[in-house]
Amino acid sequence: MKLRLSSSAGLLGILVASCGGGGGGGTGAGGAPMYGTTGMLGNPSSAVVGANLVFANASLNGTPELQPGLAFGMLIDTGSPVVLIDPTFYNMAPPATSAEIMANIDLGLLDASGNTIVTIQAIPALKLSNAMMDTLGFGGILGGDVMRQFSVQLNYANPMDAFRLGDSGTEPTGVETPGGVVGFTLAGGGQGQVTLSASAAPIVTLPATRIPLTVTIEGQTYRFILDTGASEVSVRTSVFDALTADSRPKLSGFQITTVMGGANASVTRAKSITIAGETITNVPVMTIPGDSLLDSIGSDELHYQLDGLLGGSFLRNFLVTIDYPNGQLHLQRYTTETWVDEFQRVGIGLGATPLSSAHWYNAGVVYAGTDAAAKGIAVGDEIISVDGAPLDGLDPITADNFLNGTPGSTKVLGLGATLSPSLANTNVTVMVDDLIPNPQ
C-alpha cells in the first residue's frame, strides 16, 4: 500500500493542537503518573530526522510499524500534552466508537534492526482516525505527559543517535561543552477537551507538560514554550509584523500540516534569537494568521499571553537534552553545521496526487516570483523525478529534500501530466531560489 499525504503539504510544518477548554492545573511534577519500563534506558533509538523533526521508530503492543523507511514512527513532541497514535500504522483497527479513542498501550522503542531497546508500559494514548494520520504521514506522537518522567535527548545531526529516552551518562562528539543551560518549571495541564474531529472530543486530565522559556528576538524578550514538534520557530502575528516592519523578505502561502488540518503561514527570518546565552542568526520564523493555537495554550493552560513556540529551525543547531526530572534544558551547539536550509530550494512544495494517479507527487504550491513559476510550472503538475531520481515510493520528507540546493544552481524536474500541454512528460531545468533571503 502506498504511503501518501492526503492533502497538499509542501514543506512539512507540524504543530500539535493544545489541550483546550479546561482550567490550568498547577506546576511542577506533583501528581504525575509514573510509567514502568523494561529494557535499557539511555541507549539510542532508531530514528528519522527530517523537516527539523525527530521521529523514533516504535512498536505498539509489540507490533512494529508496517512500513519502516517509507513512513515515520513516533514524532518526539514536547508541544503535545498527550500521546497520539494511529492504530492502522501498526496493523490494528482504528477506533470505531468514541469509547475506543482512549486506550493504554505499551510503546516500544526500536534499534536499527527492529529489536526493542526499551518499552514504556501501560501509557495512556488517544487513537486517531486513519485519515488524520495519513495527512501527517506518521504513526503517532510521543507527548509530554509520558516524557516528563525522563531525561530526553534529541541529536539532529546524527540519525543513528537521534533519540535517547533516559540519560546515557555520555556525550557525543562534535558539540560544544558545556553549552547553555536554562531551568524550567513545568506549567499548564488540567482537565480539558482534546478535539480530534467533529465527533471525537474526549475529556482528559493531564499533568503539567509545558516548558516555559524566555526567548530574546532581536533584543526583545518574549514568552515561549519549547515545541520539538514544530518544524519552525512560530510566533504570534504581532511579533511577526514587528519583525517585518523593516520590509525584510518574507514568504506568504507557506503550506503547513497540523493535527487539525492544513493551513497557510507566512515565513521570514529573525536576525537573532537568543536563549540561555546561545544566539542563532537568520533563523526562519513562521506565523499562522489568527494565533488560535498560541491563544488557546496561553489562555487555557498558562494564563498569560504566549508569544511563540521554540521549534526546529532554532533547535536543529544544538544537541538538545531535556532533563525533565531536574527541570533543565541543555543546548550544546554543534561544531559543524549539518542541516540544509529548507528555504533555499526550487520554488515549489510537493503535494500528493490522487490515489488513482500512477505517480505520487505533484506541485502542491508554486511560489510567486520564483524561477519555477517563470518556467510555467503550475499547482497540480506531476513531479516524477528530480535530477533523474524518481520520487515515486519515497516518503514526503525525503522527496521534498531533493528540491533543496544552493541558490543559483539548477535542478532538472521530470514532469508527468501537467496543466500546460507543452510541459507534459518533459524535463524542465529550474533554478534554485532563496525564498527568504537573510535580512540586512
Describe this protein's structure.
This protein has helices spanning 130-136, 144-147, 237-243, 292-302, 312-315, 371-374, 396-401, and strands spanning 37-39, 44-45, 47-50, 53-56, 58-60, 63-64, 72-76, 84-85, 102-110, 116-127, 138-142, 151-155, 163-165, 180-183, 190-193, 203-206, 212-217, 220-226, 233-235, 251-258, 261-275, 278-287, 308-310, 318-323, 328-333, 344-345, 348-352, 361-366, 383-386, 389-390, 410-415, 427-431, 433-434. By secondary structure, it is mainly beta. The strands form seven sheets. Strands 1, 3, 4, 5, 6, 7, 8, 9, 10 and 11 form a ten-stranded mixed sheet that branches. It has a six-stranded antiparallel sheet with strand order 2-13-12-24-25-14, with no helix packed on it. Strands 17-18-23-19-22-21 form a six-stranded mixed β-barrel. A hairpin with a 2-residue loop joins β21 and β22.
Q: What can be said about this structure in brief?
A:
The chain has 7 helices and 33 strands. It has 440 residues and is mainly beta. The strands form 7 sheets. Strands 1, 3, 4, 5, 6, 7, 8, 9, 10 and 11 form a 10-stranded mixed beta sheet that branches. Strands 2-13-12-24-25-14 form a 6-stranded antiparallel beta sheet, with no helix packed on it.
Report the strand count.
33
Outline type: globular
Give the percentage of residues in beta strands.
35-45%
Cα-to-Cα separation, first versus last residue: 48 Å
Largest sheet: 10 strands, mixed
Q: How much helical structure, as a percent, in the residues?
A: under 10%
Q: What would you call the structural class?
A: mainly beta
By DSSP (H or I, 4+ residues per run), the number of helices equals 7
Radius of gyration: 21 Å
Mean of pLDDT: 86
Uncertain stretches: 1-30
